[in-house]
Amino acid sequence: MTTNGWVEELGAERAALGRASTARRVADVLRTRITEGRLAPGTRLSEEEIGAALGVSRNTLREAFRLLAHERLLVHEFNRGVFVRKLEADDVHDLYAFRRILECGALRHAHATDESARGTAVDAVRRAVEAGESAAAAGNWVDVGTANMAFHQAIALFAQSPRVDEAMRHVLAELRLVFHVMAAPQTFHEPYLNDNRRLLTHVAAGEFEAAAQSLAAYLDAAESQLVTVFA
Predict the structure, then answer these.
(1) What pLDDT, on a 0 to 100 scale, did the predictor assign at position 181?
(2) What is the pTM of this model?
(3) Residue 134: per-residue pLDDT
(4) What's the DSSP call for residue 87?
(5) Is 108 helix (H, G, I), strand (E, B) or coil?
(6) DSSP readout, 135-197?
């Protein structure tokens, strides 16, 4: 596959976008590619290639770019074009401060949600844990990272709030851009497979305060690792 193989794959998204595609739906497609680790920081986004692959107008694509720039995922450089944003150590501190509020808060709110919603969230956490473990067994550490994104998105489900879900999608896309600084993804992701499994054990047992405390320590450790690399 060429270096722009991710652009070629966008053709598969055309049917999903439909004839009445919108900039927001195009932004969703591109954000997903970022969250999956397909677009590295500094990647230049070609209007011509992406527009042709998705079958959307230049105006629609530019509006999608604008939306993603507002989410801090893209930057427009004068006379150069649109690029995937490169994050810095200050971004890491802010992202993790936000995650502590969002994810730990969601876990502490879980007792207030109905039983069906808790069950849905636990199932989503379990699927993400199992996907990460399967990807690790296959030695596919990019997919381990993607499963980890799904794991934390599932944690947000305990808040039972569409706004929290949306905020989590945005912050995880930014976070995936941070993860690109890790030269050895296995070394970074592998220890957290056990941590994710431990958190699953807590939430499946209804031990949400223990889960929140465990997650807070987990986030502290990850932030420290990432900031050290940026430094």
Answers:
(1) 86
(2) 0.85
(3) 98
(4) P
(5) helix
(6) HHHTT-HHHHHHHHHHHHHHHHGGG--HHHHHHHHHHHHHHHHHHTT-S-HHHHHHHHHHHHH
HSE toward the beta carbon, residue 98, CA cutoff 13 A: 16
Using one digit for the tens of pLDDT, what is the confidence trace for 154-180?
999 999 999 999 999 999 999 999 988
Phi, psi (5° rounding) for residue 83? -130, 150
CA 33/CA 37 separation, integer angstroms: 6
For residue 60 the two structure tokens come to 């629609």
Mean pLDDT, residues 180-207 taken together:
92
Instruction: Compute the average pLDDT of residues 184-195.
Output: 90
Which of 86, 92, 84, 85 shows the shortest CA–CA distance to 7?
84
* Beta-sheet pairing, 44-45 with 74-77: unpaired
The predicted-structure confidence for 1-13, as pLDDT tens digits, reads as follows 455 677 777 776 7
Q: Is residue 83 classed as helix, strand or coil in its secondary structure?
A: strand
Distance CA 114, CA 92 (A): 33
